[in-house]
Records
---
Amino acid sequence: MTDIHPSAGTAGTAGTAGSAAPEERVRLSGPQFQQDPAALYAQIRRRFGPVAPVLLDGDLPAWLVTGYREVHQITGDAHLFARDTRRWNQWDNVPADWPLLPYVQHNPSVMFTEAAEHRRRAGAIGDALAGVDQFDLRAHCERIADRLIDAFSGSGEADLVGQFALRIPLLAVAKMYGMSESATPQLVRDVAISLDVGPDAIPAYLRVQEAMGRLLAAKRDAPGADVPSHLLRHPSRLTDEEIVQDLLVVTAAAQQPTANWIGNTIRLMLTDSRFAMTLSGGRGSVGQALNEVLWYDTPTQNFIGRFATRDTHLGGRRVRTGDLLVLGLAAANADPHTSLDMSADLMGNHAHMSFGHGEHGCPYPAPEVAEVIARTTVEVLLDRLPDLALAVPAESLVWRPSVWMRGLERLPVAFTPTYAGGG
Ligand code: HEM
C-alpha cells in the first residue's frame, strides 16, 4: 500500500490547521497522488478520520476533507465556509513564487466573490450557459471530433490525450463564445500556455485577456446568440471588466476538467472488459463510462477550497478562523461512510461530489454542457475508429503528477487506418 509519508512540518500557528503535531500531517504533494490516489485516500481516512491535517507545498498547513458528509456540509454552508481566499490565515507564510498561487491569488472574478455578489455573477454565467443551444453544440462537437480524427485517422495510431481530449473543450468554448474561426487557434494556443507552469504563462494569460476584451467589443457592436452577448445584456448589469474576468474563469474551468473527463472515459472504455465488449455499436455505454469516471477517476480530485469564517468543529477537528479546507472530492466519492451502496451499479447515480456542491459548485448548466461535449466527442471517436485499442499495456499508462487534477500524460492507441471523412 502507498505510504502516507508523514511529515515533519514547520509552518502554522498554534490552534489553526497548523496546530496538529507536525509528525501527524500528510504532505499533500508528491508522486503518491499520481498512480493510485484511491488507496492513499483510504489510508488517510483510516488514520486521520474525515478531516486530515495536511501540508501543502512549502509546508503550508491546511485540512484535507475526505468525508462525503463533511464535504457536503462545507459546500452547503457558504456562510461558515467561505470562498474569498483573502480570508486565509497563512498569507504571511506564502512565498512570492508559491506554485499553488494560481489557485488562491485573489482576482476580481466570480470565483472569489461571496453572498449576493456571487449570486449576481454566478447567476449571470448560469443564465448565459443556459442560452447555449445544446443541439447546436452537439452538432459542433461532432465536427470538432471529426476534424481532429481526420488529422490522425490515416496513420493507424494516435495519442488521444494530446491529439484529441486536450484539444476539444476550448474549441467548444470558442463556439459558445461566438468567436470567429480565424481567432480560435491563437486563443487555443494561448490558453494552453497560460494554464501551464513556466515563464510564458503570464504573457499568454495577458493575450487571452486582450482577446476577451476584443471579443466583448465586437459583441457589443454586433450581438449574437452567444455567451458574451448574453452576459452583456444580462439584467445584473455586469461591467466589461467583470465579464472579461468571468469569461476567463469559464474558459479555464471548462478546459482541463472536461479534457480529463474525455481522456479518463476513453481509458476506462479501453481497459475495462465491460466496455470493450460493447465497443462496436454499444453507444449507450458511453454514458455509463462517463458517470463511472466521475465516481472513480474524477477530473478534479482535490479542490482549493473554502476558508472558515469563524472557529468551529468539523469531523472531530477544531478548525480556526481563516483555516483553509481542501475539498477532497475524489476521496469523498469513495467514502464508505455514506448511505450510498458503492458495490451497486452506479448507472444513474449522480450523487457524487465531482462538480462540487452548493452555492460555489460548478454552476448549472455547466456540468450538462460539459457532458454534451464529452459524450458527443467520445461517441464520434468510437464510431469512426471501431477497432480502437490501447497501443501499450494498461499498467504502463502514466497519470499526470498532480494532486489536484486526475488525467493521463498520454493515451497511445492503435486502430485500422481510415481516410478523412471515411468510416
Ligand atoms: C463546459 C465545461 C465547464 C464549465 C463552463 C465550468 C464552469 C465552472 C465555473 C464557472 C466554476 C466556478 C463556480 C463559482 O465560483 O461559483 C466551476 C467550478 C467547478 N467546476 Fe466546473 N465547469 C465545467 C466543467 C467541469 C467539469 C467537467 C468538472 C469535473 C468533472 C468540473 C468541476 C468543477 C468543480 C469541482 C468546481 C468547484 C466547485 C466547488 O467549489 O464546490 N467542471 N466550474
---
Amino acid sequence: MKKRLSFSSLKAFSECEAEAVAVMNEEWDRQATFSPSTIEAMNAGSYVHKFFESEEALNEFKNEHASDMFTKKGSLKSQFQMAEKMVKTLDNDPLFKAIYQGSKELEIFGKIQELEFQGFLDCLNLERNIFIDIKTIRGSIGDKEWSEIEHRKVHWIEARKYLWQMAIYQELLRQSDDEKIGKNISPVIYAVTKETFPDSAGITLPQSWLDDAMVEVCEVTDKYIEVLNGRTPNRCEQCNYCKATKRNLKTISYSDLI
Ligand SMILES: [Zn+2]
C-alpha cells in the first residue's frame, strides 16, 4: 500500500477499499478496465490542461499522443475536436483569461492525519490568493448525477468528490513553508462543458463546505490507517475488481435484490 496518498487514490479507497488496495499493490490494473472512449475522454481532458499550461507542454502531449488523437484517415478524433472547442471557449472567456495566471501544474505535498499527501495544482494565482482547477464535464454546469452513497442525484461537484479534492489542496497549501504562499488560499473550479456549444464558469466554494469536506476526508484517512495497520479491506461487491475476484459460497435471497 502507498504511504503517500493523492486525492484520486483516497477517492478510490472510499469507493472500494479492496480494489484500491489491490491497485496500490499492483495486483489489479484499473486502467485496463477503462473503455477506449473513456481513455479518449481522459486524454482530451489532458489536452485542454496542456493547452493552458504552456506551448511546450502542449507540443510534448501532441507528440506523445499523435496516434491517439487522429483517425486512420488523418482527421482529428471526435473527443479531440471537442477538446479544441473547449479550449476556444476558455480562451475567449474574459474571467478565465484574467485569473488563470501564475504557476501552472504545481506539485504540492503535506500531511493529513499523519499520512503523507501529494497534489497537483493546475494553476496557483498568488496575486488573487486562489488556485484554479479546470474540470472538463460531459453535461451542463448545473447538472446532477446519481450518487451511489447518497442514493439520490447530487451536483457533479459533490458526486465526484471535488470538494474533497479542493479541501485537500487547500490544506496542503496551508502547510507550505513557502513564505509567498498565504494561509487562506481559496479554490476556484473552472468548469468547461462538452456541450455542442461549450459553456464555462468559474465556481467558488463556500469555506464551511470545504471544512465539512475535510472532516469527511479525515474519516476516510482514518479507515486507510486501519487497513495500513492490518484490517482486511472491505469489498464493495459492485466494482469490476470485486466481480473478477468474487467466490460464491452460498446462495442469496431474491428479497435482498429488490
Ligand atoms: Zn469493489
---
Amino acid sequence: MSLFNCTAPGCQQPSVRRKGSCCLCNSHLCVKHLGQDFHHCPDWQVNEQEFDIKYAQAEFVEMTALLSRVNVRALRDRAAALRKVDCTVPELSYDHGSRFSIMGGMNYHIPVNFVDGVTWLCRIRRRNITSTPLAHQNRLILSEAATYRFLSSRTQIPVPEIHDWAIDSPSNPIGVGYILMDKLAGKPLSACDLNNEDRKRVLRQLADVYIALKQHPFQEIGCLLDPDDLSVGPVLEESTIDADGGNLCLLGPFKSALEYRTTSIKHQIELILRGESYTENPVDAYLVHRFILDDVIGSITRNEKGPFFLKHMDDKGDHILVDNDFHIVGIIDWEWAQTTTESEAFAAPLYLLDVNLYYSGSNELSREEVEFASVLSGRNETGLAECVYGGRVAHRFAHCVGGDTGDTESLPNHFMGLRSALRRNKPHETWEQWREGALLKYKKDEGLQNLIQRGSYE
Ligand SMILES: [Zn+2]
Ligand SMILES: [Zn+2]
C-alpha cells in the first residue's frame, strides 16, 4: 500500500515520503536506508555547496530528458491552429541561469510566441524521483485545467485563460502532458514592497476574490475533476494519496467535513505507523493526530455543515501577479486547489500572516489579517470577516495534520496553537506536560506501543 518501496538492494520497506526520495542518487529510501550509515549523498543543511553542485547536475539530466520528449513542431502547429495565428517555439535546452524565470519545483514553462506579439505558456510537469505516480500527475493536470476553466467561466476572478491541455500519454503528439495558457504580465505580490495605500488596494481586490468564491458553493469536498466535467472528484493533495500494486488510491470526494477530516487523519496515522511520514518525530506526530481524531474533530466539524468552497491551497503570495499600480493581473498556480469547508476556504491566505509570530506559536492576528477582515466587514460580508478573524483554527489544523511532516520543531507550536485557538488548553500547560499526559492516556494503544518499541531499538 506504500506509494513507493525502498530501492536499496533487497529492501521492500515503504519509502519515506518527500525526503526519502533523493534526486541525487535517484533512490526511494526507507527510514533505515535514509540513515547516514547507508545513504551518503550530501545533506543540504550540512554541506550546501556540495549539495548544490550535485543537485545542479541531477537537474540538468532531468530537464534534458524532459525537454527532449517535447515535440516542438507539434506544439507550435497545435498553438497556431488553435489561435489561427503563426507562432514560434524556441528550440528547447536547459539553461541553469534562467531556471527561476521559467520553472518551479513542479512545472516548467515553454513560451509560445505569436507573430502579433501575444505569448502563451505551455506548462509541463517536471518528472524526477520525487514525482508522484504518472496517474496522479495526469489528474493534477486535468484538475488544474478544470479549476482555471471554472474560474474563468463562472467568476470575474482574474486568471490566465487556458487554451488547451492534454495528459501525458502515448497518444499525445506533443510528447508530454501540458496546459496551454496565456502568459500574464505582472510580478509576484510576494516580491513587492507595499506601502499602506498599495496594501489596502490589494486587500480590496482580494475581498472581491473571496466574495466571488463565496457565490459558488459545492456539495462535496475534493478537487475539480476535468475541464469538460467540472464536478468534484477525489482530493489530490500529496499526503492523501497511496498506491496499491501500481494503482493509484485516492480519498474522496466527501459529502461531509467530518468524513473528510476523519479519513484524512486516519490516513496520516497509517503513514506514521508505516514509517512514511513524520519519521523524525513519529511519537509526537502520532499523539497529536490521535488526540485530534479523538478529541478535536467532533467540535471542529460541528459548525462545518457545508456547503463547501474552492480554495487556492498554496496561497503564499507568489500566486498573485500584480502590475506596477498593484492591480491584480491574475491569480495563478491553482494545481492543488480543492473545495473545502467555509472556515478553511476563507481563513486569511498564508501570505497575510506574520510568519515569525505564527511559527513561534502565537495566534495573534497580523495587522494585514485584521485589515482584511475589516475590509470584508465594510462590504457587509460579516460571514467572511468572521472566517478571517477565526482563521487560526484552520491554519493550525492544516499545519498539524499532514502538513510540514519534516518540520519537527514546529509541530508542538502548531498543536498548542490549535488547542489555544479552540480554547481547549489548560492554563499554563506546556507541550511537554501535554505530551506526558497523552503518553499516559494512550499507553495501551497498539500503534503507540509499536512506535515506541521501534524507536528503542533503532
Ligand atoms: Zn541520495
Ligand atoms: Zn530500505
---
Amino acid sequence: MYSNVSLQASKLVELANGVKKNSYRTKLITITSGKGGVGKSTITSNLAFLLSKKGYKVAVLDADIGLANLQVLFDVKPRNSFFDYIEGKSRLEDTITKTSYENIYLFAGISSFEYSSFKNSFVFSNFIKDILALDSFDFLLVDTGAGLNDYVKEFLAISDNIVAITSTDPSALTDVYALIKMLSLNKSKLMLCFNHTKSYQIGETISNSLITLGKKNSLKADFMVKYLGNISSCTNVATTSRLRKIFANEFANDEVTLQMELVLRSLLLNIG
Ligand SMILES: Nc1ncnc2c1ncn2[C@@H]1O[C@H](COP(=O)(O)OP(=O)(O)O)[C@@H](O)[C@H]1O
Ligand SMILES: [Mg+2]
C-alpha cells in the first residue's frame, strides 16, 4: 500500500516537473477552494473575461468533476466535453468550445460522472500537459471542485499558480487552512482571494492571521501565502450568473468589477 502511494506521488512530481521544465507559453492558473459554493466559477469566469479584455487568449477548463457549470456561466452548449478526449473519443481540438466572448475558449466538463474509473491514472495531469503543449493560449484557468479529493489534488499537483477562493466564514477559513497545510508540503506558495468580503483590509488581516497560524504550527518556513484582494457580495453578481452573463462585462464600471481587476493585477504580479 505504502509503496503504491509513494509511487503515485513520485509520478505526480515527475509530471509536475515536466510542466515546469518545458516553460510553455501558456500560463497555468488553478482556482480552488476548501469549501464549496464560495465563488470559484464566478471568479474564474470574470477573471477570464478581464484577461481577454487585456488582449490575452484564454482557455478555461471546467475541472469541477461532477458539478461542471462553466458552460452555463459562459452560455454555451459544448458539443464535446474534455472527457471525450480523455476517453479517446475525440481530438483535443474538438473539445474546445468557442464562447461568444472574443478570446475565451472553454474545455467543458460534465455534470454527472462516475469518476472512479480514472482513479490514480494521471489522465488529468496528462490532459493539462496536452493543452499546454498546444501552445495556443496565453492563459489556462482551471476551475477545480471544492475540497481535497484525489482529482483536485491531481490538478493542484501540476500547477504552481494556485488561487484559493475563500469567504470569511469560519468553516471556509478552516478548510482553506487545511489546503495551506497540504500545499506547504510541496509547493512554494498559495494565493488567496477573499469573496463576499467588503473590505480589502479584512481579507488582508485574516490572511496575516492564517500566516501566523502557519508559523505557529511550524509549516515550512519558505512557503508563502500571498493575499490578492477582496470581492464584495453583490446581488448583481448572482443575478448576472443566473442570466448566463458575465458580471464584469455587464457592470464594467461597478466597484466589484474594480475589485476583480485589482485581484487580477495582483495575480499577474505573483505568477511565475
Ligand atoms: N461576490 C458575490 N456576490 C454575490 N453572489 C455571489 C458572489 N460570488 C458568487 N456568488 C454566487 O454564489 C453562488 C456560488 O458561486 P459559484 O461561483 O458557483 O461557487 P463555486 O464555483 O465555488 O461552487 C452562485 O449563485 C454565485 O452567483
Ligand atoms: Mg463551481
